[in-house]
Specification:
With about 220 residues, the chain is an alpha/beta fold. It is about 40% helix and about 25% strand. β3, α1 and β4 form a beta-alpha-beta unit. The radius of gyration is 16 Å and the shape is globular.
């Protein structure tokens, strides 16, 4: 296992990240989280660990700089700026592609909250470069007109007690034209804080990503 702190150059900024590659990795998954979370989030770290146990590399990074995150906490001006978040994710993906190509790895996304929308917009724009997408408690509906253009197999995971978000995921699911599945975890709220629910979501995500990245 190789673990590296990385700095990802994007337009006018640099984003901090953690790149981890298990020996014999079968793919590389980029994490896209929403505002208020970070690459250090225990939930993100847990899910990343499950993916690595399945033989997948992970790149956890922040879509916003520390200064932008502080400003966002006051103004909330960036959390729903999906085009901006997707642009950041695309830049990080092109940076990660160099590492992935050197190791012969396919690329995938896992997104939560508004990061899931950014992942789907980025996947639609990058086409065959992205082999699989997972949304965990996400807002894929915010990807809007980009949804029919997503070609990567996409899994939407929602908590069974996350009523409004279930409806929004069902709406997005109907707009997707790729291979797709929508799975609802009974008893789970938006953040999958209930016992066993995050573990179940991580297991689903791991199986989906490992299967599709290995096939690519």
């Amino acid at each position: 296992m190789t673990n590296n702190e990385v700095s990802i150059p994007v337009a006018g900024a640099a984003l901090g990240g953690e790149l981890s590659l298990p020996a014999g990795a079968r793919g590389l998954v980029l994490f896209a989280h929403g505002s208020g979370s970070s690459r250090h989030s225990p939930r993100n770290q847990y899910v990343a660990g499950v993916l690595r146990e399945a033989g997948l590399g992970t790149l956890l990074f922040d879509l916003l700089t520390a200064e932008e995150e502080q400003a966002e906490a006051r103004t909330r001006h960036l959390r729903f700026d999906i085009p901006f978040l997707a642009q950041r994710l695309v830049a990080a993906t092109r940076w990660a592609q160099t590492e992935a190509a050197r190791e012969g790895l396919s690329l995938g996304y896992i997104g939560s909250s508004t990061g899931a929308a950014a992942a789907l917009v980025a996947a639609a724009g990058l086409g065959e470069m992205i082999s699989s997408v997972v949304s965990r408690g996400g807002r894929p509906d915010l990807a809007g007109e980009a949804l029919p253009g997503v070609t990567a197999p996409t899994l939407l995971i929602v908590g069974g007690d996350d009523g409004q978000v279930i409806s929004l995921n069902q709406e997005a699911f109907g707009a997707l034209r790729c291979e797709k599945e929508l799975r609802i975890i009974p008893g789970a709220s938006h953040l999958f804080e209930e016992p066993g629910t995050l573990e179940e979501a991580a297991r689903m995500a791991s199986k989906w990503l490992a299967g599709h990245l290995t096939e690519s």
